[in-house]
Amino acid sequence: MARKVVLTCALTGVLTDPEIHQVPVTPEQMADHAEQAWNAGATIVHLHFRDQSPGLGRFPSWEPEVALAVSEAIRARCPRLLQNFSTGVFGDDIAGPVACLRAGRPELAALNAGSLNYLKLRSGGDWAWPPMVFDNPVDKIERFLAVMKELNVVPECECFDTGIVRSVAMFHQRGMLHDPVHLSLVMGVASGMPCDPRWLPLLADEMPPGALWQVIAIGRQEVWGLHRRAVELGGHVRTGLEDTFYLPDGAKTGSNGALVEALAGVVRDAGGEVANIDDTRAILGFS
Q1: 4-284 carries CATH number 3.20.20.70
Q2: Cis link prior to 180 (omega < 30° from 0)?
Q3: Stretch 103-131: mean pLDDT, rounded?
Q4: DSSP alpha helices (H): ranges in 64-157?
Q5: Structural domain boundaries of the chain?
Q6: pLDDT of residue 20
Q7: Is pLDDT at 277 greater than 80 in this prediction?
Q8: What angle, rounded to 10 degrees, do the helices at 27-40 and 256-269 form?
């Protein structure tokens, strides 16, 4: 039998301008795109929240009222769809992400499992933005883990480089993370791991035994070969307008549904079977 592969859809990014790219912002738009993803085969949606003030939808929001409104709109439309909240925040203050977790009570939440110099160069050699550190020290990670444990939210460890993958193994060995460890390989960020399938076998060797892992592929057409290799090696996969705007043929899309549909095709072509919601809950160990 073909292996069941879980599809996640990241509906919208952190700072993508909705006036330039067709990313959802309002609760209704987020629910529309979640339903697209569900109909195309996704069983998990990864959620960022945006400022709901007129003209400010390109900026993130950590208002619990916004998180709750988005979460409830999606649950009303797709009640069995699993939700995964972002918690990625710069600095030591985690009050905003924690308030959103308490308000929305998702099944999963991203846990940024290490720090990264977050950099990108323009073609002329200038910085695309001022160099910044995405700081996730161990004490910050432990505080997030304590809240997730309290709320029965499963942490999904996001890893932007190889050292972070190895750190997750140490967190597991120390008892901070429990089986099965959920791990996401974020590949394609300019100062992190490249979007290159050749890295996957080595990264898989560094994971805790029995880890459930997925690829988060950032880029254009190069992401699709990475997804295929992940399926071949036993991983799961994520797409969505947070990660790419481009379909396998190079065409640009404003639809999360089209991206998930394309990813489902990659899964089948690689010999896998798209997991339905019952499959997904069994794979993740949910009742």
Answers
A1: yes
A2: yes
A3: 97
A4: 64-77, 95-104, 138-151
A5: 4-284
A6: 83
A7: yes
A8: 20
